Amino acid sequence: MTKTVTTIIVLPLLLTSCTGIKSNIEAVYNFDVTQYQGKWYEIARLDHTFERGLTNVSATYTLREDGGIDVLNRGFDKHRNSWKHAKGRAYFLKEKTVGRLKVTFFWPFYGAYNVIALDHENYSYALVCSSNKSYLWFLARDKTLDNSIVDKLLSNADNLGFEVDKLIFVEHDRPDA
């Protein structure tokens, strides 16, 4: 009986604990998912196992009928000379006007997807993090991003406590396939 009670209490905590946001970080407001949908190129990222060694990384977001978002991440693995794909789903944690979502690639496990900086005018670049400071992405609609914007995002991320000196700038040298 005790084991069952513990499972009932602990399992939901484990399944939702990765969808938070650090106290000194805020997701953007006035977020418009219809403008955010579409293809984004990864300009820079902090290293992590599920993208390690990949180049030409992109993410495509498509609205779902249930109010969520289909996610298609892809990148080129030069060692295997092949494309890798990961399909997932994302759902808003709060109002759809706040850039806080939970994303899953392996249901029932969700991770945080927090848009913490955004070009609200053109939706041409975004700064995204997860629930902790180990995950950070610079995204753009084009394969390159103006140095002044990169510097702005670097400064923003540094001020929030991310290890910007460990960022990997992603190579985009292949045609989209």
Question: How is this structure best summarized?
Answer:
The protein has helices spanning 2-16, 33-36, 147-159; strands spanning 38-46, 54-63, 69-77, 82-92, 100-106, 109-118, 125-129, 136-140, 167-169. It has 177 residues and is α+β, with helices and mostly antiparallel strands.
Topology record:
Layout: H1 2-16, H2 33-36, E1 38-46, E2 54-63, E3 69-77, E4 82-92, E5 100-106, E6 109-118, E7 125-129, E8 136-140, H3 147-159, E9 167-169
What does this structure look like?
Strands 1-2-3-4-5-6-7-8 form an 8-stranded antiparallel β-barrel. The chain has helices spanning 2-16, 33-36, 147-159, and strands spanning 38-46, 54-63, 69-77, 82-92, 100-106, 109-118, 125-129, 136-140, 167-169. It has 177 residues and is an alpha+beta fold. The radius of gyration is 17 Å and the shape is globular. The protein is built from 3 helices and 9 strands. A hairpin with a 2-residue loop joins strand 5 (100-106) and strand 6. It is 18% helix and 39% strand. The chain has one domain (25-169): Calycin beta-barrel core domain (Lipocalin, Beta Barrel), CATH 2.40.128. Residues 1-17 have low confidence and may be disordered.
